[in-house]
Design a protein that fits this description.
2 copies of one chain form a homodimer.
Chain A (H helix, E strand, L loop, with lengths): L5 H9 L2 H10 L6 H6 L5 H13 L3 E3 L8 E3 L5 H27 L13
Antiparallel strand pairs in A: 1-2
Helix pairs in contact in A: 1-4
Chain B binds a DNA duplex (30 and 30 nucleotides) through helix 4.
Chain lengths: ~120, ~120
DNA sequence: AGGTTATATAACCGATCGGTAAAATGCAAC
DNA sequence: GTTGCATTTTACCGATCGGTTATATAACCT
């Protein structure tokens, strides 16, 4: 198994609506498993599992407050996603820019292996 | 199956490095399955599957060019992700602002086992 | 000690995932 | 037509996912 880098884990963690809901809720303040399970049809172990996924993705951290283990958001956890999105956005608009420029100036082939859909 | 909205599908699609590589490669121009499989250790059916996932996520569209079926990027496919990230970012910085204000008034010692790089 | 509460783990389940090999389809050219 | 190429579909596989119930820790409080 390849490393399974943070970007993989972050995207995978965010792909689940329950997990995104947990993050959103944590935005209103740290919360323990019971509190999180309260606003959800899921059972407490399910929430614990989701928290573990979010933790491994770096999106939350668990603390210790008495017998509770409140989860809190980790801002840095979104950085890999943020970065990837920025880079990709740049590349894509690059491509679209080039396409537009190309179409505006001259309707024929440019370098080596471009697409010719006009 | 519940709705499984576009955001779910987009995040899930992006969670796979092979799929992200395909997107990046498509940034350099449309490509068919054979071309995509060429730069990968995977077989063609595997690529076809990945393309289907990307297509259902709205991140690519398939065309028709002779007997090829080239895939091309779909810029709009990233919009849901973009939106979610923007919204979440806003909410989180909100929370961190409040946290800083709070910390300024009272020091705390709750955390025990996290790796927060200053 | 015992009891209550918060959380985690274990064992299990069906569904989905990522991959394969092999067969089927589609399309072009001879 | 048949041949040849690009692509998809069809089983099939093991692994992971998202959920459950039941049980085990762990921390608090009498």
């Amino acid at each position: 198994m390849p490393p399974d880098d943070p970007l993989d884990r972050a995207f995978a963690a965010l792909a689940d609506p329950t997990r995104r809901a947990i993050l959103q809720r944590l935005g209103a303040g740290d919360a323990g498993v019971v509190e999180l399970a309260g606003g959800s049809p899921l059972t407490q172990p399910a929430i614990t599992k989701h928290l573990k996924v979010l933790e491994r993705a770096g999106l939350i951290a668990r603390g210790r407050d008495g017998q509770r283990r409140p989860a809190r958001l980790r801002l840095e956890g979104l950085l890999p996603v943020d970065d990837w999105l920025r880079r990709t956005h740049a590349e894509w608009s690059d491509r679209f820019d080039r396409l537009e420029t190309h179409l505006a100036s001259q309707p024929e082939a440019t370098t080596s292996e471009e697409n010719r859909d006009a």
